[in-house]
Amino acid sequence: MIVTGGGSGIGRCAAHELASLGAHVAIVGRNPEKLETVRIEIEEDGGSVSTHVSDIRDEETVAATIATIIKDHGRIDGLVNNAGGQYRAAIKDITTKGFEAVVRSNLTGGFIVMREVYNQWMAEHGGSIVNMIADIWHGWPHFSHSAAARGGMFTLTESAATEFAASGVRVNSVAPGSIASSGLDTYDAKDTEFIQKGVSPHIPLQRFGTESEVSSAIVFLLSPGASFITGSCVRVDGGAPNARRGWWELQPAENNTPFNGFHRASEPAILAAAHQGEQR
Length: 280
Ligand SMILES: CCCCCCC/C=C/C(=O)SCCNC(=O)CCNC(=O)[C@H](O)C(C)(C)COP(=O)(O)OP(=O)(O)OC[C@H]1O[C@@H](n2cnc3c(N)ncnc32)[C@H](O)[C@@H]1OP(=O)(O)O
Ligand SMILES: NC(=O)C1=CN([C@@H]2O[C@H](COP(=O)(O)OP(=O)(O)OC[C@H]3O[C@@H](n4cnc5c(N)ncnc54)[C@H](OP(=O)(O)O)[C@@H]3O)[C@@H](O)[C@H]2O)C=CC1
Prior knowledge:
alpha/beta; 13% strand; binds ligand LOHRUJSQ; binds NADPH dihydro-nicotinamide-adenine-dinucleotide phosphate; peroxisome; fatty acid metabolism; NAD(P)-bd_dom_sf; lipid metabolism; fatty acid biosynthesis
């Protein structure tokens, strides 16, 4: 199994889960220290893991990385195309260079990895691919570059699912909403505080998700349990896109208390547990 972005957050959690199920996990990322930390964790837990330093946007390195994984481990049964990210900015302030950096991180890079895995292995042997996108439905103001890229990845997934079907390759996407992952450390505290304060009206399940809730969707889609699912998208978002205007005001008053319940995102224990990868 290959997990890009396996050195932190959702990718790290998925790598742990796949290794605990007996897979050899090849984790890919730019930062060797992050990958090394996860390698030690997985090996301490008795799992099998290898680390591969590669920027998913660098075609040559990606091709060489996939070739190395096949040479060293003999096969690639699954790809978690998870690496990515973005920064917060209004459209008026996004430079062309910045726009392209985000599109290359969240669309072109994932395309390169998927194509190389398919051409070098899965076209002949079959497999399963999961592409990470985001809650981009109806747009994503202040993250428009990422929304554009993820929308592309959503339809790339649908196209690949049909093109690759005859080779026995399933391709699906997972769309996380607000997840209390290490990725949120990338943003200013004032920004995440803002979205945590808005969590109740915007997320029907009234909390952030956890890394393990996203990785369980990933692992399901990779598994034989999903053998008739291809070209689909699993949303892991607490119902956020369905929270249309007015729904919150229609809640019974006793449910309409901001930040009620243990699982609220502002609960430090939830963020701390998510950061440590509570599936471990
Ligand atoms: C407000 C709360 C938000 C909650 C969101 C919740 C949902 C989503 C969560 C997540 O996705 S969590 C994952 C978060 N993790 C990451 O974002 C990590 C990966 N991100 C990156 O590596 C960068 O953001 C990147 C831009 C995608 C790629 O970085 P790279 O190192 O390749 O490019 P740079 O050389 O740094 O930059 C190129 C170019 O991009 C512009 N730019 C980059 N960062 C910023 C910034 N913070 N602000 C404004 N502009 C930025 C800029 O034009 C850069 O060019 P130069 O100016 O440096 O020449
Ligand atoms: N957390 C959330 O709420 C949401 C997350 N997502 C997406 O889910 C995925 C995982 O995010 P999450 O775990 O939260 O955040 P993290 O920032 O912890 O994970 C992102 C990972 O991607 C790797 N990465 C980023 N760019 C590249 C690149 N060009 N080449 C190789 N590796 C790269 C990073 O590793 P390194 O630094 O070593 O390069 C890092 O390990 C991302 O695509 C993210 O955007 C989507 C929606 C919501």
